[in-house]
Structure formats: structure tokens, C-alpha cells
Amino acid sequence: MIAALASAAIITALVAVSIGPVPIAPSAVVGIITDGLFSTGHGDWSDSAQQIVWGTRLPRVAMALVAGAVLAVSGAMLQALVRNSLADPYLLGLNSGASTGVALVVLVIGGGSALLFSGAALAGAIGAVLLVLMLAGVANRRGPLRLVLAGLAVGYALNATTSFLVFSSDSPEAARSVLFWLLGSLAAVQPLALAAAAVSAVIGISILLVIAPMIDALASGDDSARSAGIDPERTRIALMVGVSAMVGVTVAAVGGVGFIGLVVPHLARRLAGGRHRVVLPISALLGAILLVAADTVARTAFAPQEIPVGVITGIIGAPFLLLLLRTPSSSIHAS
Amino acid sequence: MIEAQAVTVRAGRRVLLDDVSFTAQTGAVTGIVGPNGSGKTTLLRALVRAAPLSSGRIVLDGDDLRIRPRRWIARHVAEVGQRSEPDPSLRVVDEVSLGGLAEHGVLRSGGAAFDDRVADALDAVELSHRAFDRLSTLSGGELQRVALARALAQGASHVLLDEPTNHLDIRHRLEIVALLRRIAPTVLIVLHDLDLAAEVCDHVVVLHRGRVAGAGRPAELFRPPLLDAVYDVTTHAHPGPDGRARLSFSLPSPLPLSSSHEKESA
């Protein structure tokens, strides 16, 4: 199944690169990419096609692959760690922190480069998670519920701050860029942000795959975890911090794309059972496919006007979640 | 053998366990009984280092628990919690196999020998036919048996059980009771049902408000003065069909609306 999904992800990505205002045949896309990587020679495509593929579409699709995988994997992780099927990657207020960071930069400094926005988002996300951990008390022994509550509280407070900042500025331009960040967008992918997200995704997901049986034990409850020789409280916090760091880098690159991290893990568990050594890679591939597809729709449906990709994932995700909840659940603690 | 030596556990200012000492001998089933809130579950948690000790120590076959890594503890002590709520998307065999994680780690599988142990454990709790079903399809009693199977697969020399018969019907309760003697050399079990405790335990520790109110063989211990004081009831002992006394209880001074009510222990 993993091989089939991996092939599906590659095909989706190729099709996504070929779709756009200037259509490029998928075969030409393959030629352009292999030529760029291995200098296999110029085929019968135009230089402008080459420029479009390498300059705009390929980075964008690559970013969607990475972000989709990271969001889905971290959603699966947080659902397992707090043993709640409604957890998503933004549970610890990460998303709200990122948008507050961007709002501050946009409204106080009055604009800036995309890279500055990414930096502000990352700083905001890290700040939010640290605040949540501090409020919940890192050493507390009450299980994950307090973390969830602290995450909610910090999230609401930061959202209120962001709304206030946007409301108090009279620049509609600023308000729009903050909104774009809140909903998520792959319109302006920075090479540096893409590289950082890809590297952190590869490192993070590899580590998670190695320790996957420990995650099974944690998801199965504290007594299962202790039976496996794991300190449930400490391991849970350590994994939450690690996963949040990985998501933080992604959110800094693409903003708060919703629903992928909530819905995809349910689907993966439905397909693959509960063992995280299988659930995590399947989540990653499904998330990647879904975000590439959603982003392609986002940039082409109302072209040349672009809609935030978060709108598309929300439109697909919400009914999908309801559908999953209708059938007898096999996901983590659906109650 | 598990020895608790002057164990005190605090949560903030509240004292949950106060200077508790007892020994659970190898080859015996040791019971822990006591009213709600007397510290039974806290004691079990302390024994697997899930509740930090304020003072005292816990010694396992001569080893102080504090200086041992968690994986060592997991190889020597298995626990079966009161309510088992494992990840419902796991299959039965996956959950039971978690019992081997402390032994072989995350990178290696347990091999054929461990697979046999898992199969034997599922056999022992009569769940072999459901090995590849998801936990979401199991009943509460079956989940309880899965937790027992996991403890069996763990192969630990000490097993701690918190009310393991709570969700079980009569037949499966009897089966688990029969299994208790074979589950591990040292068994420590928390029970509410004093008749059941008298039946399965060689030695019983009675907890009351975080302190040991009495310890000894159940036949000697389960007598009116002690139980009346600990549970705040009036205890009646009746001779049972096998000669062993059965207990029944009533409220000490008849309450206006429930004067004729007799409260059974089970």
C-alpha cells in the first residue's frame, strides 16, 4: 500500500506541475526535471516551459508535498499523544502564535519581505508553544489534558491579539496578508523556507519511524507505556516539543493550512490499523497527495485570482470528517 | 518479592500514603484492600514509579527501584490497570506484543520465541480467535483480558493488578482467578470484593486513609473489629459451604430511609 501511495504521490505531483495557465505535458515535465537534475539533455520543450517548471511550479508543488506530509504526520502524532481524535497539529497554539508574529511584523514595521514574515511566524509559533508548556507546567503529572487546555487558552488569547492588531490598523493590505497567513498559502514559496521545511521533515519523520513502537505504547495508555519501559509524561512532552518544532518550520513557510492534520490521520488509521510504523508513512503520503491536489485547485479554479489553500482543504475536509465519523470508528478514542 | 519500606507519597499537602510497609512474597498472591480513597491505586502507581515517593523505598528482589532504569522495571514488573482504554485502532496481537518492547527495544522484533509467548498469552485468556481483530470491536471484559495477556507476554516476575475482575462476567472472572497463580511468581492484586480477596489471596494488606490498618492471612484479618473500623460498617461473618467464612455488611446505625437495607460487599 505504501508503494502504491508513493506512486500516486509522484503522479499527482507531476500532473500538478503540468497544470496551469501555460499547460505543459507531463512527459515534458519529467524531461525537464530529469534534465535539471542529471543533465540528460534538452528535449522538445521551450525555455519558458523550463523556467515555469523550475522557477515557480516545481518549488510550489514540492512545498505542498512537504507541508502535506508534515501536517498529516504531526496530526497523527498529536492524536496519539493526547489520545484524542480531535487533536490537530495546532493543538498547542502554534498556528495562532505564527499569525500573531506575522500580524506584529506587518502592522508594527508596516510590511517586509516574505523571509521576514517566515521568521516572525516561526518566532511566534515557538513562543506560543513555550508559553503553553510553561502554563501547563512541564513537570505536571496529570496527563495530557492540561496541555490541551493550556493550548486552547493560549490559542484564543493569541487569536484575540491578532484580531485586535488587524482591527486597529487601517491598512486593508496588512489585514489581507495576515488573513492569508491564517488560512495558509503556497503562493510565495521561499527557497530557504522550502529547504528548512524539507530538512526538518526528513529528520523528524525518520526519527518518528524509528521510535514508532513507543508511540503505539503511548497511544495505548500510560500503563502500556510503562510496560514498555517508557516514562509516559516525559516522553509525551518531549515528542510534543519535537513535533511542534517540525510543524513550526512548515507553518513559517506556508501558514496555517487546516484540516489536513485533522482528517488525514483518521483516513490512514482506517486504511492501515493502529501501528504507527505504518500509520505515519501512510499519513505522510496521503497528506502530501491531498495538499498538492488542493493547492492545484486553489491556484487554478478561479485563475488568475488565487484562493487560499486552507479554504479548499476546509471545503474538502469538513464533509470528509463527518463521513468518517458516521461509520463505526476505529480511530483513536473517537469519544 | 516486593518490599515497600516506609513508603510515603504526597500530592501537594495531602498525604496519600503514610509510612506504608509490607512485603509481597514470591510464590504468593498478595491482596490490597481498603475503602475508596484509602491509597490502593496510589500504592500500585508508586510500585511502578508512576507516583514519586516523598520518602521510603521500594525493593524488588533486593534491587532498589529508584536506581533502576524504566526499561529494567518494565522487564520485572507488569501492571494491569483498572480501566483498560488502549488505542482502539490497534489489533489485539499488536497491543499484546507491546509487552515485549522493554525486552527487545524498538529496532528489533522479539523473534519466534516472543511470538510464541504472545500466542500463549492470548491462549491463556481465551482470545486467540480474536488476535487479528481491532480493539474497537472488543467488549470491556475482552479488553481487560487483552491487558492481562499483555502482562503475561511481558514475562515479568512481578505482576500488579488493579481490580482485574471489574468488567468480567462470572465465568471469565473465575478463569482469571484460576490464572492468577500461574501469571507470575509474585502477584499483587487490588480488590474491592473481600470475599474474592479471601478466596484468592494468601496474604492481605488492609489500607485505611493511606496507612496500613492490618496485614496477614485473610481468614485471620477479615474479622468484625478491623473491618468495622476501616469501612465504617457492621460486619457479619457466616460459615460458607466450604467452611470458609463469608462476609456481609450493614450500616452501623440504621438510617431513617434504609433501615432494613443490607449492603452486600460485591
Automatic annotation (TrEMBL), chain A:
SUPFAM superfamilies: ABC transporter involved in vitamin B12 uptake, BtuC. One of its GO terms (molecular function) is transmembrane transporter activity. The chain crosses the membrane at residues 61-82, 89-109, 115-135, 147-168, 239-266, 278-301, 307-325. It is found in: Cell membrane. One of its GO terms (biological process) is siderophore-iron import into cell. Its main location: membrane. InterPro entries: ABC_BtuC-like, ABC_transptr_permease_BtuC. GO terms for cellular component: plasma membrane. It is a multi-pass membrane protein. It comes from the Bacteria. Keywords: Cell membrane, Membrane, Transmembrane, Transmembrane helix, Transport. Belongs to the binding-protein-dependent transport system permease family. FecCD subfamily. This is Iron complex transport system permease protein. It comes from Agreia pratensis.
UniProtKB/TrEMBL annotation, chain B:
Keywords: ATP-binding, Nucleotide-binding. It holds the Pfam family ABC_tran. It comes from the Bacteria. PROSITE patterns: ABC_TRANSPORTER_1, ABC_TRANSPORTER_2. Residues 2-234 form the ABC transporter domain. One of its GO terms (molecular function) is ATP hydrolysis activity. The keyword GTP-binding does not apply. InterPro entries: AAA+_ATPase, ABC_transporter-like_ATP-bd, ABC_transporter-like_CS, P-loop_NTPase. Signal peptide: none annotated. This is Iron complex transport system ATP-binding protein. It comes from Agreia pratensis.
